[in-house]
Amino acid sequence: MRDGWRMTSSRMLGRMVGMDPELEVFVPLFPRGDLSDPITARKGLMGLATSVPAPDTTGMEVEDLMVPADPDVPVRIYRPQHAEGAIVWLHGGGFVMGNLETEHPWAARLAGNSGAVVISVAYRLAPEHRFPAALDDAYAVLTWAFEHAQALGVDPERIAVGGHSAGGGLAAALALSARDEQGPPIRFQLLNQPQLDDRQETWSARTFTDTPWMTRGKVTQAWGHYLGGPNSSPYAAPARAEDLSGLPPAYIATAELCPNRDEDIVYALRLLQSGVPVELHQWAGTFHGSQAILSAEVSQRQNAELGAVLRRALAY
Q1: What is the CATH number of domain 20-313?
Q2: Residue 166 to residues 182, 193, 196: CA-CA distances in angstroms?
Q3: What's the farthest any 2 CA atoms get from each other in the chain?
Q4: CA dihedral angle for residue 205, residue 211, residue 212, residue 218, rounded to 10 degrees
Q5: Which residues contact 9 (CB under 8 A, 6 or more apart)?
Q6: Which end of the chain offers a freer environment for a tag, N or C, measured as fewer CB atoms within 10 Å?
């Protein structure tokens, strides 16, 4: 039994108590979490992404373009018919991995399920480009989306931000930055298992040290690549922000067996205590990134809920 599981799970009758059985059978297929070699890790993620079937995009415009910035930022835009709102969407990958191709199955799925325009962002990756490069890219795309809302066919007051994992952390930082700089108004934050706190001091961070896909070592490597050293900026790690008032309403989803779980729940509570409306969903029996296992019923519900929540947030 790995130390990281001892306080929450035990093997009984050949299976791990607490994990959804439809997910557990796939655990041996997940690669070991390691970001010591970013190039190899990126290739590994690309291999996993190509194994995930993308949804049918028939009837949806999909376009790649460059958002003017310094440097320009590649984006892929998904335009469902009759979309009224949009989301600046930031992929996961520990700030080190991911691109428009690895995120395609999820960005396309979100556009189809929500009916919103999804602007998937290929932000610069660490360690070649450390904080604040990725945040600067995201902010440039948010500003561009607001200024070009009419061309996108959406209401400029119905633009959300969101993302998975590290992308969720970037989305939360983007909301903080836009608030503090009086930037474009953000309608909503869609934060799925966001990576928010570099300190790793919560109960889940100290306990789930060797869980599938996300280990304590991998989290440490991710923050190390991204920050490059000590950094207490809330725009790097949003959990460090002292003031969460005035931020957009949020949906925060957590996985039960995930190091990020408790920092996400604490962030949701702090948002609520600051007067920010929050919907918090803690998905029992899941682990970080397990919703990529599309055959599992819980994964189907997770992916459908992201779309439904975004549709509702942008509808009024």
Answers
A1: 3.40.50.1820
A2: 24, 8, 8
A3: 59
A4: 50
A5: 16, 17, 18, 19, 257
A6: C
pLDDT in tens, the chain (316 residues): 333 443 343 332 234 558 999 999 999 887 777 899 999 999 999 998 888 888 999 989 999 999 999 999 999 999 999 998 999 999 999 999 999 999 999 999 999 999 999 999 999 999 999 999 999 999 999 999 999 999 999 999 999 999 999 999 999 999 999 999 999 999 999 999 999 999 999 999 999 999 998 999 999 999 999 999 999 999 999 999 999 999 999 999 999 999 999 999 999 999 999 999 999 999 999 999 999 999 999 999 999 999 999 999 999 7
Gap between the Cα atoms of 60 and 77, Å rounded: 10
Which ranges in 149-211 belong to alpha helices (H)? Answer: 149-152, 165-180, 203-207
Contact by Cβ (8 Å): 73, 123: yes
Burial grade of 86 (CB within 10 A; 0-12, 13-18, 19 or more): buried
β-strand partners of 73:
67
Please check whether residue 161 is in contact with residue 90, taking contact to mean a CB–CB distance below 8 angstroms.
yes
Query: Locate tokens 């500003």: which residue?
Result: 143
**Rounded-to-integer distance, Cα 284 and Cα 150, Å:** 41
